[in-house]
Amino acid sequence: MRAVPKRDQILVGLDIGTTKICAIVSEITDDSVLNIIGVGSSPSRGLRKGVVVDIESTVESIKKAVEEAELMAAVQINSVYTGIAGSHISAENCKGVVALKKAEVTREDIQRAIESARTLAVVPHERRILHVLPREFMVDGQEGVREPLGLSGNRLEVNVHVITGAVTSAQNIIKCVNRAGLDVIDMVLQPLASSEAVLSQEERDLGVVMIDLGGGTTDLAIFLDGSIRHSAVLPIGGQNLTKDLAIGLLTSQTEAEKIKLQHGIARTGLVQGHEMVEVPSVGDRPARTCSRRDLAEILEPRVEEIFELVRREIARAGYEGMVGAGVVITGGTSLLEGMPDAAEQVLNLPARRGAPGGLGGLRDIVSNPMHATGVGLLLHARRHMEEMAIAGLRSGRPLDKVLTRMRGWFFELF
After folding, report:
1. Are the C-beta atoms of 58 and 27 separated by less than 8 Å?
2. What is the residue extent of each domain of the chain?
3. In terms of pTM, does the model score above 0.70?
4. Can you spell out the DSSP letters for 65-103?
């Protein structure tokens, strides 16, 4: 019988999505491997395009997912790392400059440079900074420095990627988690979390586009030379495919979702044979049949629209022709048959489907693109703990600091 893990070894990622809410529980082994010990999920009924629109329904869905995960893991969950998405997310790039106090770069200098860049970001009153991510450093004008610690010089510059979100959207997520009886340790942009779970360092170095195809949104993150260069959230996702099927087949959205998952295909050119699919009708009307090619003809235009929006975003950000590693698609909607092929066709880039890896324990359950965000939240949590250990800080202090920041967001407008 497995020993009950210590509380400080437990990390929980809570993926609050438009179509599902998933809680993943892990314990950290002595060699820093994430052992998955519990997973719980529940249909999400209170979100629209990544934003909370019904608090009570969201709270109930969170409770169900967490209770299921607690039962499987045999632990009590008190705090979680959660994600945030939605079309309210925006980003900008800023530069910070500081003079070095000594003849070489210290950790304090790095933090001062990042804080200097943070203060230059233009953030309206109704928005809050979620992340300040260094893109590259410069020491005495020398560009392309990834890790400046210990380098000799007189002047340190940093380019950062500042991600902001609407205060109210963040507050509503925190409110739902708190009402479910949990604390939010930290809130992470969902495409960043997914990127941690499915991208290799080689891909980040060469240049890659990570596309998280969710139920309500399509999240985008572009990496080059090892760091993030651009991020965006597009208000279109798998639910649009389901609605198109429901309308085209004259059936309910529930049945359309089942048909999409079991028989859907992203491109008509990939359909083989003459497979027929039974389509339940609305009301007392008898069921009908349609060919799988008919399904593809309904789904293909919407899939092409999604990837065309991604292509435009890549071009708008100025990274067209610069992503040598191509595209990695993930998220539940990426499981639709033919999605990598459709991405290659529209984006004219090599594409693969990305699933989380490098895990222990119940890894088979979460080694699926639909769990990319949840696993990514755990990887972020582990890195956060390691950074605190490297800095020589007791875990209570920085954790309290983050919790205070989260509570500050919650009470600011109430």
Report:
1. no
2. 7-87+168-194+355-412
3. yes
4. HHHHHHHHHTS---EEEEEE-STT-EEEEEEEEEE-SSS
Give burial (CB, 10 Å; 0-12/13-18/19+) of 388.
Answer: middle
Q: What pLDDT is recorded for position 389? A: 65
What does DSSP assign to residue 337? B
Distances, alpha carbon 253 to alpha carbons 216, 339, 398, in Å: 14, 21, 45
Calculate helix-pair angle for 339-347, 292-317, nearest 10 degrees: 40
Q: Are 327 and 354 spatial neighbours (Cβ–Cβ below 8 Å)?
A: no
pLDDT at 236: 93
Residue 410's contacts (CB-CB under 8 Å, 6 or more residues apart) are: 171, 174, 175, 178
3-state helix, strand, coil in the chain (%, to 5): 40, 30, 30
The DSSP annotation for 371-396 comes to GHHHHHHHHHHHHHHHHHHHTT--TH
Distance CA 89, CA 169 (A): 10
User: Would you state the pLDDT for residue 396?
Assistant: 46
Residue 12 amino acid letter: V
The pLDDT, as a whole number, for residue 283 is: 76
Question: What are residue 353's DSSP bridge partners?
Answer: 329
Q: How far apart are CA 106 and CA 142, in angstroms?
A: 17
Rounded Cα distance between 370 and 331, Å, is 4
Instruction: Tell which CATH classification among 3.40.50.150, 3.30.420.40, 3.40.50.970, 3.40.980.10 matches the domain 7-87+168-194+355-412.
Output: 3.30.420.40
The structure tokens listed for 123 are 């953030």
User: Which residues in the chain show pLDDT less than 50?
Assistant: 1-2, 4-5, 7, 394-399, 409-414
